[in-house]
Amino acid sequence: MRVAGKGLARAKELYEERGQRAKELRVEGRKVLGYVCLFAPPEIMHAAGVLPYRLRGDPREPITSAHTYVEPLGCPYVRNLFDQDLKGRNAFLDGIVMSHSCDMVQRVYGIWTYNNKPPFQYFVNVPHTLVPWSREFYKRELGFFREKMEQFAGNQVAEIKLKESIRLYNRSRALIRELYELRKLDPPLISGTEVLEVLVAGMGIPVEEFIDLLGEVIEEVKARDGGPERRAARLLVYGSVCDDTTFVRLVEGSGANVVTDDTCIGTRSFRHDVPETADPLDGLVDTYFDDFMCPRTDRGTDIDRFQYILDLAREYNANGVIMYIYAFCDPHKFDAPDVRRYLEQAGLPVLIIDDDYTMTNLAAIRTRVQAFAEMLR
Amino acid sequence: MAEYGKEPGKPVEELIVAGVDIGSTMTKVVIRNGRTMSTFIGPTGAEYRTLAHKVVEDALNQASLGFDDLAYVVATGYGRMSVPFADQQITEISCHARGVRSLLPTARTVIDIGGQDSKAIKLNEQGRVINFVMNDKCAAGSGRFLEVIAESLGLKLEELGELSLKGDTAIKISSICTVFAEQEVVGHIADGRRLEDVLAGLHDSLASRVYSMAERIKLEPDVVLTGGVAKNIGIRKAMERKLGYQVLLPPEPLLTGAIGAALLAKELVLKAIEQGQPLKKERRPLEAARFFE
Amino acid sequence: MSEPYSEMARAVKSTDTVRNIKKYAPTFYARTKLREQEGKKLVWTMVGVPPELLVAFDMVGEWPENYGTLCAAQLIATGFCEEAEAEGYANDMCSYVRNTMGYLRRCREVGGVPPEAPLGGMGNVHLLLGSGWVCEPRYKWFQAIATHYMDVPVFNDDPVSPAWDTDLEDPRIAEHYKTQLRATLKAQVTFLEDIAGRGLDLDHFRIIMQRSHQAMKFWHETLELRKAVPCPMGSEDYYTAIIPQLYLLGTQEAVDFYQALYNEIKARVDGGQGVIAHEKYRFSWFGIPPWFNLGLFNWLESLGAIVCVESSYYVKKPPELDFTDPVEALVDWIWQEAVERQKESTEVLPEVVNPGRFSALVGSKLVARWIEEYKLDGAICHRLRSCRASSLGEVHFRNVLAQIGIPTLIFESDMTDPRAWSDAQIKAQFREFLEMIDASRAKRGGRG
Fold this sequence. Notes:
The structure holds three protein chains of three kinds.
Chain A: H1 7-17, H2 20-27, E1 31-35, H3 42-47, E2 50-54, H4 76-86, E3 95-99, H5 103-115, E4 121-124, H6 132-153, H7 159-181, H8 192-202, H9 207-223, E5 233-239, H10 246-252, E6 256-262, H11 267-270, H12 280-291, H13 307-315, E7 320-326, H14 330-345, E8 350-355, H15 362-375
Parallel strand pairs in A: 1-2, 1-3, 3-4, 5-6, 5-7, 7-8
Helix pairs in contact in A: 1-8, 1-9, 6-12, 7-9
Chain B: E1 16-22, E2 26-33, E3 36-43, H1 52-62, E4 72-76, E5 88-89, H2 92-103, E6 109-113, E7 118-123, E8 129-134, H3 143-153, H4 157-165, H5 178-190, H6 195-214, E9 223-226, H7 233-243, H8 256-275
Parallel strand pairs in B: 1-4, 4-5, 6-9
Antiparallel strand pairs in B: 1-2, 2-3, 6-7, 7-8
Chain C: H1 16-19, H2 21-24, H3 26-29, H4 31-38, E1 42-45, H5 51-56, E2 60-62, H6 64-73, H7 77-86, H8 95-110, E3 127-131, H9 136-148, E4 154-157, H10 171-196, H11 202-225, H12 235-247, H13 252-270, E5 281-286, H14 295-302, E6 305-310, H15 326-343, H16 364-373, E7 378-384, H17 388-391, H18 394-403, E8 408-413, H19 423-444
Parallel strand pairs in C: 1-2, 1-3, 3-4, 5-6, 5-7, 7-8
Helix pairs in contact in C: 6-8, 7-8, 10-15, 11-13, 11-15
């Protein structure tokens, strides 16, 4: 194992090398599974001794191979993941696990596994409504997933092991929250770009190593001079999955600081710990089904369901919100007019950026973001 | 670097500043010399914006000024990032808003329809930007739409608007895409429909597309129309029908952004003087555009 | 051949039964008048919700999707879609949804039904009964209506469909899914009981379910008859004939309509009568049709091309059921069909558990089987700009069919947004497709 840097430098290296660490571990005999969405909880894979590796798209690479199998009129992020797979980027994996984050993922899962069969595949299903029977369904589904992981890894996932994994992941959540604390200051001590590098790096390495990395980063950031400059615009970025720093970097290069987010690889995944329940699956259901604020889950019709975004913005002293939404993302697009109305009524200006994941329309996006930053001066 | 107001014998009122609005087709320059203003409009130079600096040169010549006389240059518009000779880049949103605020202070909404895109800006009572929206990268909501149609019908862009007013019954153009709409228009003409009626439908179609984009920020009167397409009477009338009230027009709709840029340039200089801080200047010589995106 | 430059056209129907559908299904066509007279609670609902439940609770339904097709056919949808976009609903969102959101925005604007709304509008809605089947836009839609425009009760069912590689032979897995289906249907019943203020009358519901079963048998048999050469019924009739199946299941009207249609089609087949005398091309159709231009099918027929089978709204042969417990019969019906669909290979159609018991897309093995059974020359896929549920998977079909030497045309437009239609371009694509088939026949020497 080669470790060139520590802290932020290490995070950047892991971010840029895409799966390097996972590849090393696989050579050492660790089983590695690629997953797409947190509805297939990494805790369960970890408890079976598997390294969960979150699949990444590459916005710099236009979709080419996937066009042979799937039409362009669909989620550009999932199609990009599939395209990466077709291009052999996931060749080091022992298999993939996907889940019903949304219909798009389930459809592409079928086309993907039919046309480019991985050595192992599994799908975790997830209902949409927060009602007791749907929670029970998801709990049973997690039980099947645990069994499947046991068969796949050849390791029993005893309750005690799963509880230990949950504790470890909760430890990483607590450290991420500590890191986010440093963004509440003005200027923030760490940029949104750097935070995203750390979080994406963490999705590809064992949680034990991520915990160490977070510790190093926090220590380094607290001690360093020369973090982000003070900017009038302190922004919250709202969106689905942002697994690449291009967009946040553009925002931070346009006269604004990104101080928090409501995204999948962001506050949605660590704001709440998994409760340590007698049956560990109950805690996982609480966190991943109830508390995970993806708009794909039906939380009723009250507009106050968006209050958590306002709370987040206030907690981090954000004075504007950028809603960064991918083309064809129905769950987010249905909510967008109401999220916007809700936040604007509370005095938070909102900018909606509709993107195809690759930011091909870079100049136009930059103009909007710069104008938004100018507006908040 | 010249620090205005600090040099003896150069009162603040005599500041010379420039606003340069580099649009997709035209470059617009406004030079403010104290209270007087000179303006110049010239082609940007196809897609490569290679002529933008020429337009600035022409404008300076006309005003009998040299490039070094300019205390500060603010660039705006589609091509603002690729001109090396500006001191600062400010988006067209802020510049249009600033321009309209000085020209038509009652404005609460600005709708700008340019050659390549369109946008709407919401202003508060003080004229500050409080919201804005821009169209997607689609010619159907911009002046390009009319250009394409004029070209395929062999008409001059300038005559489209007037002709459309002579239509009795607007023929609905249903396609959303410029290429399809063009085929549809040609189809209607080939089918013997009156040109004026087809054009009336075409103007309605562009106006409703721009309207549904702009209405996302809740249009409020007074509405000011800016940009090259604002000069098209057909669009103006179609827009007024859609809104149910009259729209306002600046004296030269093309210049709003450049006027705003010049005003912002002056304000930046004055603010720097007031705060006693040197102004950040990134200007390089007056030369052709660079391409980094 | 010269044709006048055409705009959108309505379909000319071939069969008497479909042409006279208003006579067979008066409650559907007169519903706006009926609901005024009877003062019943009006439910906005959607396909995928078992229509039998509305019949059982004697509730009056309105279907915004169907209203969307109506607005599309009258070319009113363009205006409503633009209004929705002005409200902030993106233009890549479902055009049924945009049509409704635009309609509601206009209602808010004028403080009542806007004058351009067909049929005098969609009425004063009391509750929204949605379905999570097939796509997220469906439950997000009613959720958004209630958040954005009006505060009315909403129920969305939540039928979870297995992935294509899920082992439904494993009784634990089957029970796992069936439990969810049963729970969500029972919750829907409870929701309606609360609104209606009375329990579900099981004896009455049993009759309703039996009628529904009878109607679907006739309907499925009719679709089977379309295998005949020449084909006795085309899409221009099919896409109207689905109305009772989608909205009136459980009524006697639906039974009568499908029985009459079956008889008419059967007589045609027995007499060797087809929609067109000289069929040159037989196709299957994938995707929702362009509702604003169903005349497209007549145009295709003028070129000798007939569509014999459609994936959208396709119904399977209903299984034999025990109606003792009619709710359980409904659960069984839905589940048995889901298992059947899964066997047909559903890698691009994960949404097999449909409480409305029809298809959006179909499994790729069934697609291949249709080629033989319906003696098809090719497939036509309508790629819908604003509907992923009905479109994503067509490229996969094309690949599957290409392997058995069957050509596929994919053309792009939309179901309800006429702005996506490009007449000249689309028709040129169709002509090229037919010419390509001609050329490959000439190469092989004669037909097929």
